[in-house]
What we know:
single chain; 4-stranded parallel beta sheet; about 15% strand; 434 Repressor (Amino-terminal Domain); Rossmann fold; about 325 residues; disordered N terminus; alpha/beta
Amino acid sequence: MNWGNILTIKDIARLAETSVATVSRVLNGDPKVAPSTREKVLAAVKENNYVLNVNSRTMRTKKSQKILVLIPTIVNSFYSKILQGIEARAEENGYDVLIAISNLEEAREQKYLDMLRTKQVDGVISLFSLLPVDDINQLASKYPFVQACEPLIGSHTSSVTVDNRQAIYDVTSEFIKNGHKRIAMISGDYYKYSELNRERGYRDALEDHQIPYDSSLIIKTFYRYHDGSNALKQLLTLKNPPTAVICVSDSLAIGAVNEVIAQGKTPGKDIAIIGFDNTSITSNFVPSISTIAQPRFDLGINAFDLLLEKLVSLDSQIKKVILPYEIIHRQSTKR
C-alpha cells in the first residue's frame, strides 16, 4: 500500500466494485449483505489497511458517544477534579471524554471546536473560551455546548459556576468584622467572568460597611506565583499598607505569602491572606493557605448533566446553575 495516500470509503467501494452504501453496511456488520460481496469488500479493506473513519460511523448513527472538554491549560491543578466529575457522569451515561488544551490560543480552540461541527464529538463543555461571545452564541444555537466556571459575559448557554460575588463579599465582610480596615485585593485581567464578579463582591462589601474604596489597594496581574509576590510587594510599599489581602486564586495567595515571609513578617499575624479554589497545595503549604473552596467535582457533574440535556434536546431550557462555596480558614488568616 502507498501510505502517502489515505483511502476513503469511496475508494474501497471502487476497488470492491460495489456501492458506498454496501461498503458501509459491511463495515457496520449488516447481515443482509451477500457473502460474496462481503468477502470482496473485506478483502479490499485488508489489502489496503483501510481504517473506518469516525465520520463514516457518525453519519450512520448521528452520534459518536464522545464529548470534548476544553480547558485553557494543563498546568493549573484546579481543573483536575472538575474533569473527574465530568468523566464519572459521562461514563454512567455511556460517553467517552476527550480533553483538549487550548493553551490560551484562539486558533487552537477553533480547531478543536471543528470536531463538534464535523460530528467527531456530540457536544462540548468549555471551561474557558477566548472566542467572541457572538461566536459562542451561534455555536450553541446549533450544537450541544455548555460552559463551566468561566462563562462568557452575555453568552446564551447553559452554565455552572459558584457565586463568585457573594464568596468575596462574605470574605471581605469577615475581615471587616475582625477589625481590618485596609483590605487589599490581588485580582487578574484575563478570566473576566470570575474576576469582575469577585471584584464587585469586594467593592460591595466595602460600601455596605461604609469603608471608602481605595483604588491603590486593588492590583490586577496574571496568575503565576511571582505575580502574587510582586503584587504584595507593591502593596507593602503604600504609606498605609493593608492588613488583609484577598487573592482571586490560590497561586496568587501563595506568592503573596512567600513575599510576606521574605520581608520578615508572619502571615496570619502581621497580614492576613486568603486565596480562591482550595487546590491541593493550599493545605500542604507551610504556612497553610486560607482559601475559598469551589465544589470542583460537583462542577464537573453538573456540567455534564447540563450538556446531556442539550444532547437529548438542543432546544431544552438554558440553565444557569450556581453551586455553593466554602470559606476555609487556615494559618494564613489566623489572628
